[in-house]
């Protein structure tokens, strides 16, 4: 049996609904709550609801076309018994994959293994491909004799998932105002990952992120060839939205790698461990490419949350910081709006010093972004019709 079943409960997660005297007198209570971690949305019901948390800043713009999908971390049983059926009623479909350890566990224990999920609105998108990326398998296959890769990275069973979506033709026609027969498919890749949590393993987080971006690039390149999509210079024909619990702060090598396009093989987060030979396989142009001692990924990624708008995405009693992110690729995508942080005055007034809390079921706060997909320039004639270039 897992060790945690014998551990005493964390007192910070124990909530008193009513006193023993009230219970003895027959008082009834109603307390429904689902506690999970990750970028989530959830419903809580209380007998006497508290004042709702208020975003201190909500930026909104006129939406031309915005991507309706959600990425979360969730347990296997929660996905199949709650999230998938609930969201299907709202017009979503989804893809979920548990961590690698699930394959070695009994059926009863497997349902409690967490993993990553992606949901998408079926009236706007159809799923073309679904992918699971297992970091321990990649570490084993690409160790190149690196003991650090085998002993530190391979032993962590974190995963990432990716769904290649096609924008439905009717959505494109609504946006452009014209019939678009004969044009390329408009694809979008949505990726979600959960990196290792321990601050002492900054090297593992960075290697896992490199592995994931390398696999994402492989997915994009193969799909571009398979669907014979036209490309413009170094710009990919398939935009990318990357959502992740990176377990890494904004000044980390992980965020530097994603934001700047690469990181030096000698970065301090590698802890002077021998990784360099094994990392070259994850370079954007392959092992034979020269990148002046840097590992690069080839995407032009931008964070949806910039300039320190979110003071923290993880809010616990003893840690508060930004470790969750939404990145998107330029120039195909633009941010139209984002949900800002919870009002700090609300947290103080309600004595919320750490989460999970009766008012807030997760220690991770939700990130939410509205994204605009810029459609490619439409040829002047399609099937004899003169069409203007539209967004």
TrEMBL record:
<dbReference type="GO" id="GO:0005737">
    <property type="term" value="C:cytoplasm"/>
</dbReference>
<dbReference type="GO" id="GO:0005634">
    <property type="term" value="C:nucleus"/>
</dbReference>
<keyword id="KW-0378">Hydrolase</keyword>
<feature type="domain" description="Endonuclease/exonuclease/phosphatase">
    <location>
        <begin position="239"/>
        <end position="364"/>
    </location>
</feature>
<keyword id="KW-0540">Nuclease</keyword>
<keyword id="KW-0805">Transcription regulation</keyword>
<dbReference type="GO" id="GO:0004535">
    <property type="term" value="F:poly(A)-specific ribonuclease activity"/>
</dbReference>
<dbReference type="InterPro" id="IPR050410">
    <property type="entry name" value="CCR4/nocturin_mRNA_transcr"/>
</dbReference>
<keyword id="KW-0963">Cytoplasm</keyword>
<dbReference type="InterPro" id="IPR036691">
    <property type="entry name" value="Endo/exonu/phosph_ase_sf"/>
</dbReference>
<comment type="similarity">
    <text>Belongs to the CCR4/nocturin family.</text>
</comment>
<keyword id="KW-0804">Transcription</keyword>
<keyword id="KW-0677">Repeat</keyword>
<keyword id="KW-0433">Leucine-rich repeat</keyword>
<keyword id="KW-0539">Nucleus</keyword>
<keyword id="KW-0479">Metal-binding</keyword>
<protein>
    <recommendedName>
        <fullName>poly(A)-specific ribonuclease</fullName>
        <ecNumber>3.1.13.4</ecNumber>
    </recommendedName>
</protein>
<dbReference type="Pfam" id="PF03372">
    <property type="entry name" value="Exo_endo_phos"/>
</dbReference>
<dbReference type="InterPro" id="IPR005135">
    <property type="entry name" value="Endo/exonuclease/phosphatase"/>
</dbReference>
<keyword id="KW-0460">Magnesium</keyword>
<dbReference type="GO" id="GO:0046872">
    <property type="term" value="F:metal ion binding"/>
</dbReference>
<keyword id="KW-0269">Exonuclease</keyword>
């Amino acid at each position: 049996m897992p060790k945690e079943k014998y551990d005493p409960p964390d007192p910070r997660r124990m909530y008193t609904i009513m006193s023993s005297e009230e219970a003895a007198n027959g008082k009834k209570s109603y307390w429904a709550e689902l506690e999970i971690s990750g970028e989530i949305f959830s419903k809580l019901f209380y007998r006497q609801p508290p004042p709702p948390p208020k975003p201190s800043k909500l930026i909104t713009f006129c939406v031309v076309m915005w991507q309706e999908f959600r990425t979360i971390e969730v347990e296997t049983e929660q996905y199949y018994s709650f999230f998938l059926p609930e969201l299907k009623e709202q017009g979503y479909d989804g893809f979920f994959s548990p961590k690698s350890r699930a394959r070695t566990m009994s059926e009863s224990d497997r349902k409690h293994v967490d993993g990553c999920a992606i949901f998408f609105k079926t009236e706007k998108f159809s799923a073309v491909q679904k992918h699971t990326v297992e970091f321990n398998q990649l570490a084993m296959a690409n160790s190149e004799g690196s003991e650090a890769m085998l002993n530190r990275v391979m032993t962590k069973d974190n995963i990432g998932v990716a769904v290649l979506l096609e924008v439905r033709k009717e959505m494109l026609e609504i946006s452009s105002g014209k019939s678009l027969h004969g044009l390329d498919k408009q694809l979008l890749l949505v990726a979600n990952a959960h990196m290792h949590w321990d601050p002492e393993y900054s090297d593992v987080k960075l290697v896992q992120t490199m592995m994931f971006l390398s696999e994402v690039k492989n997915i994009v390149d193969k799909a571009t060839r398979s669907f014979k999509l036209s490309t413009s210079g170094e710009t990919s024909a398939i935009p990318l939205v990357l959502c992740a619990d990176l377990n890494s702060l904004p000044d980390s090598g992980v965020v530097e790698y994603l934001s700047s396009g690469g990181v030096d093989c000698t970065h301090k987060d590698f802890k002077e461990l021998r990784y360099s030979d094994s990392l070259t396989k994850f370079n954007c142009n392959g092992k034979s490419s020269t990148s002046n001692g840097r590992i690069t990924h080839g995407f032009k990624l931008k964070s949806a949350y910039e300039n320190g708008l979110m003071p923290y995405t993880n809010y616990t009693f003893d840690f508060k910081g930004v470790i969750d992110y939404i990145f998107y690729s330029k120039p195909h995508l633009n941010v139209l709006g984002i949900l800002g942080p919870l009002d700090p005055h609300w947290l103080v007034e309600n004595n919320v010093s750490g989460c999970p809390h009766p008012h807030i079921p997760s220690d991770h706060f939700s990130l939410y972004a509205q994204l605009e997909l810029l459609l490619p320039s439409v040829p002047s004639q399609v099937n004899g019709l003169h069409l203007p270039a539209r967004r």
